[in-house]
Amino acid sequence: MSQSALLDAAAALSTFLDVQSGRLAVCSNTQRNRLSDLTGVFSDEETRAALVNNANPVIYEVYRTEPAEKQDTALCYSSTIVHSGRVGSEYYMTRGHSHPSLDAPEVYLTIRGEGMMLLQSDDFHVQALAMGPGTVLYVPGSII
Predict the structure, then answer these.
(1) Strand pairing partners for 139?
(2) 106 and 90 share one domain
(3) Phi, psi for 54 (deg, rounded to 5)
(4) What's the number of domains the chain is made of?
(5) What is the pTM of this model?
(6) What is the DSSP letter of 37?
(7) Mean pLDDT for the chain?
(8) Within 13 Å of residue 133, how many CA atoms lie on the same side as its CB?
């Protein structure tokens, strides 16, 4: 990729984060995850199903920015908004995800609210890290 193309790509991937709403002004993908999308995530399936039938609330939203051309070394970023609420005794949460390779680490910055980040290694060691305004968490690429 030429230097000029790199500059164009940098400009195309730059955007504004509204710290009040948590949304990116420009993003390549928006995902709204409703409670019906989270089967098997919460331990109280009966309450989850009842809430789905009643209101099926949006649990979290992801605003993702990715380069138009996929590259192994490309940096992607997103903003995730986890709404307030509970399913039974559990607070709203994301589905979570894993990275099969070491070259996909992540950095999480908490702007508003409080929560926990649950990390799990391949050998099932689990660590819970508190998140609050200003918290920056580094997650190695091979961690779930």
Answers:
(1) 106
(2) no
(3) -80, -55
(4) 2
(5) 0.85
(6) G
(7) 89
(8) 5
